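Chain and conformation:
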Amino acid sequence: MTKPRFLAFFFVLLVLSGCAGRAVLGLDGREGESAAVVPIYVATMRARSDNLSLPFSAERSPHLNFAKFEIGIPKTHVVGKVESTGRTPDPARNFVAVSFQPIDTKQKFIDDLNAALAKRPPDEQEIFIFVHGYNNNFADSIFRNAQIVHDYHVKAVALHYAWPSGGSLPLYVYDRDSAVYSRDGLADTIEIAARTKARRIILVGHSMGSYVVMEAFRSLALSGRGQYLNRLNGVILAAPDVDIDVFQSQVRDIDKLPTPFTILVSRRDRALSVSGRLTGGHPRVGSGADIAALQEENIVVLDTSNVDGGSHGVFASSPTLMALASTGALTSDIGNRGEGAPAETLLANGSSFIQGAASLVIYLPARLLGVPQAGLIQ
């Protein structure tokens, strides 16, 4: 590879690195110095590590491992940010693991999830599953999960699925292979959540994590375990790094997607543009290259191209999306709307005062509009 091409390739990797920083957990134990503490239950195909700063490594485990963490949110936290460090974290300024408890068996993990659910009021007995994206070490991914739960005021038991991303810029191909390797682990994690007493289960996948999600759904469908997909009450794929042709093939194998099913896209997502070039020029689902095809699959599409910069991580950092979520506008049960439901009712009327909401473009599923393509600008 000539020097100019090497530099160009390095720049490509640098753009893609927007998914993560380099963080360590810390395992500080000084809970009182954090502004808030978020409990996170973890199912992971990462191998265990003796390093308490990163108790799960980038190596692939032959089986699921389970744990519970308590993540401290710093007093200086800025909404939408993850204040992490590669050195010993300061709980007053950095995200930090306050506690770490390995869980030995699948049944104990289910029992612990049920115990956490039982402590919540009935309308909050929900499990929120988060699947992270490319270039995340374990700390990067669990801190992001905690930030989303905290900043979006998620009233649910947080279940983090950590797949063995290499957490390094040059390891895009390693991560793609790890995504495939980890699909059955996520399928098992969904089954675990389905076997709890949760009243609702919501799943969110980001970037390459969306590929893990779709492969897990496909694995469940093809192995005769589709009933566990029926326990999902909502799926959101944010900036999915999935080839559009591959996605449509996955949908065919799954046959019936969970509903409501929502995808966040952005034409300004530089990371997905680079990913498309790395993978032969094929458009990614998250780039919004074929919204009509997604509508035909009865998927709701939110175009965030002009929302707070429309970056690869806008789903986790956008003040606009957080404000809309706080009004309930982003959690409306779209799947229950009648044929030909007026698009104007998709966002609550009260959301019109939220700065930036006018830039969100929403595409309803074709079955609701009776047409193959229809967009709404609020």
